[in-house]
Design brief:
heterodimer; A: alpha+beta; 5-stranded antiparallel sheet; 9 helices; B: mainly alpha; transport (chain B)
Chain lengths: 431, 664
Amino acid sequence: MISSIVFINHKGEILIYRVYKDDITRSETTQFCAKIVATKENKECPIINIDGTSFIHITIKDIVVLATTKVNVNVAMTLQFLYQLVKVCRAYFGGEFDENCIKKHFVLIYEILDEVMDYGVPQIADADLLKKYIQEGGLKPELMNDVEKLKQLTSQATGATSWRPPNLVYRKNEVYLDVIESVNVLMSVKGTILKADVAGSIQVKCLLSGMPECKFGMNDKLLMQREPRKPGQTTTDKGITIDDLKFHQCVKLPKFDKERAITFIPPDGQFELMTYRITENINLPFKIMPVYNELGKNKLEIRVKIKSIFEKNLFATNLAIKIPVPKNTANVSTNSAIGKAKHEPDQQGVIWRIKKYPGDFEALLRCEIDLGQTTNQQPWIKPPISMEFQVPMFTASGLRVRFLRIYEKAGYKPTKWIRYITKAGEYLHRL
Amino acid sequence: MAYFGNNPQRGELQELYADLNDLNFEKKKEAVKKVIAYMTVGKDVSELFQSVIKCLEFNDIEMKKLIYLYIVNYSRQKPDDAIMVIQNFRKDVRKSENPLVRALAIRTFGCLRVPKLNEYLIEPLKDCIQDDDPYVRKTAVLCVPKVFEVSPDICPALLEQLQKLLEKESNALVLANLIQSMREIEVVSGKQLINLNQKIIQKLLLAVDECIEWGQIFILDYLATHNPQDSKQAEIIIERTLPRLSHINPTVTFCAVKVILKYLDFLDNGELVKNLCKKVAPSLISLLSWNQPEVQYTILRNISLILQKFPILFENEVKVFFCSFNEPYYIKYEKLDIMVRICDSKNFGQVLNELLIYLNEADPHFVRKTIKSIGKIAITYDKALEKAVSILVEFAKNVQQPTEPVQELLMQMQLIYKKSKQMYKYDESLKIIYSIVDYANEPESKSACAWILGEFGEYIPKSVEKMKEYIDNFQMEDRLVQLQLLTSAVQLYLKYPSQCATIIQQLITSAKDSFNPDVRDRTYIYWRLLSTDPEVVKNLVCFNSGVVSNFSKDLRLWETQDLVLALENMGSISNLFHKLPHQLYKNIKIKINNQHDVKIYKGEEKPDTQPQPQAQNQQDGSNQNNKKDQQQQQDIDLLSFDEPPSNININNNNNNKTDVFELI
């Protein structure tokens, strides 16, 4: 499988070097560092073959995390493993992952590398689980000598519910649900929608005692069609069509496949229960209507009208509309009734920011752009207008959580909280 | 503590030596850390071997791990010293009550990789494979291939033990590692080790549900290499794999897709196949928008394979492959490539509209590839010709510099005119394209310009003067351009015999002594022919009008008979390079595909005049061998300039041409 894992800084210096199989020499890796990392040549492509050695890598900020191999490995898995490795490191370093951290904690990283991979084969790489038996400065001697505890630990690690330790106790049992939707949309110059989808995620913070079994339900059309109608109840809500769902490892997938029921024993604390993708009947929260005019050789005018398409009692927050301007822009004068618009040269655009924006409302921005002299004869390549926003208590897909039932043998009644928010993903309008 | 010091000087090693032998525990530990730091930056600290291993006396697990790391790194350089640690390992494996310590010892023990030390390892390893603790077992199982690689002759008993374990093991994680380790041994030894029967398949399928994500991948990857006995078994495996499509790890999903697609071939029930395709498609599409671009890239590189065998999966889904403005270019290139492959006689309009936008991108390579893609679509689909030409002409209007895309534009226009000569009239394309010929600076694009000049001489004002300009620089040109100039000049001569008489003479004079035999030969052939029978020349060099069918390039990437094997290896490095494993790795045996008919899964067939490239694909097992030849033939057609002779009708009067040649 994988021959070695290497961390490299942007200069091409090796920070961490762990070999799993000795079919690779250090000089092959340094060759990669010198040829690819330091020269930044072809670095973008995640897999590079040099003389029969494959270099599979990802780049996190300035750090290149590399796996080398000489056999026909599963590349997707290798990349996924590298990402997971970075995630584990971050969990240990309080979210950080940079050269300083790596140098400071190199002993710990070697310990982690020893555990997450054996003979080039990925092993247990769950940060919460690893923290139970790998700690900076070594484990407490009490644990090392407590054979019972150790047995419990290894059986959790190798068992079917490795993500949840037994015997958790909370005085107050609570569950927080966050439904977060990112809307991706691409509109053509004329305003027709070329591509629109919602990438949703349900985040759960779980503070529950014992081994609770949870059942979770949404207004999923396929699920609601299966449910028997209650007599006397006429629902107008037919549910929504979900293109695809992906679940956290705790969700019992065979059960979902058969009954479309989402059941799970949750991990402790924060986790992402599921992600989903929806392409049908999306309520786009904003419409963008740009007009582009060339007023002579050195003057441009861009007018952008935006319209919010959601209920009046809701508000969008933190709007930022980025209107691209040419590189040789000398001066921009803006005019709008709401928010603040400013030319930001480092962003090569006018950023129009609005703190709070009501539903069903229109606003207009007019930008007059004076262009400076330029020697560059190339016509300006107009990037699309992009938009950022958040709309709390709104889902672009129309998704609603219908229930979250929790069964635990202690029979407690947990408190449940839920929030919805829709954000802009790639919200683009070609100019 | 200095992490990245420079070369450990002699003095520094002395200092470390002293610290390692210090009585103070903390000092020792710091020294060990320093040693590891030196090792990381690639400095040789093997001299300290004995002092380092002495530190193993302390029961400190952090230090133990560091020392083990050191030993693994230098054991092969110092096999005699390494023997001294054997006792330590054996003690840990046998006596320690702590499963973590037992596992750590056996794991490290296996990594020593010194043949004579491995003998000491066999007994403890056997114990560990039978350990009560699954954590130790999963580690021990992976230790076997380590030993096998170095000393296969002492392993038979261990292999037997693994086979027995496969029968009785119930822990999912251990099973997953077991499968992976047995596969590794199979690769090294070239012998089959896993005897897959109904019972074991059941077990593995059960383990997939309970195992960590990596384990799921190992098992699914393995199942994809297996051929089921019958339709029933295939159905069971597919049914049990389906739930994995909803796993959050994209690789698990992708492996599940692989297993399902592989087993589809073995199903009898056509309706079931259709339903399964409907289930697989959305999962696969979700993977394409996965937020890690590297993972997205690996999936994209496998799409052409899926597209070729399962066109049904991406029916009406071309939008999925549209590029976003902010995507990295390596993703955009892949998407562009797929868009051309997925393009058909129904959706070409949509694709061309999208490609039109990419012509505004900043990266010249990308724009070039876009132009090439537009050209490919135009040549493959007759109906797309007009739209493609108007896009390219519009682009040509804004050309001001000899950029890379311009070169491609000229080359693609040449191909389009070759396919359908009538296109020169469309949108005044000839006039606009001819206006940019001076921006040609690559041999291919220059030769395209020369071709256009010869072919359309009668429609281009002052074409003879332009030809003279080219011929004046004849000696400076690339061989490719020279060859084309010869043909084009003769073409022009046939059209304007009197005006071209002098330049043809000039050309022949300068070309007949060329150092390049091809150029020389072609010159003599034309010369002889022109002086004997000009009608023959006409048939040779002039091109008919009307649409040339069968001009399309084969857009299929894989040989049809390779599809099954490629599918088994979906996600692997070889597939990423669009190769079969044995083509990339010399030590992998060629696996021969026993299935004669490769099934292709298409959507509903609608009557369509334009044959799709994939459509020819079905059930053509018999003429497999011809396919390669045909493809080569087509490639040659696209490159060569001598088109098939046809009924040429040139209106110019060529009666008085022979006397010119008598003068030469």
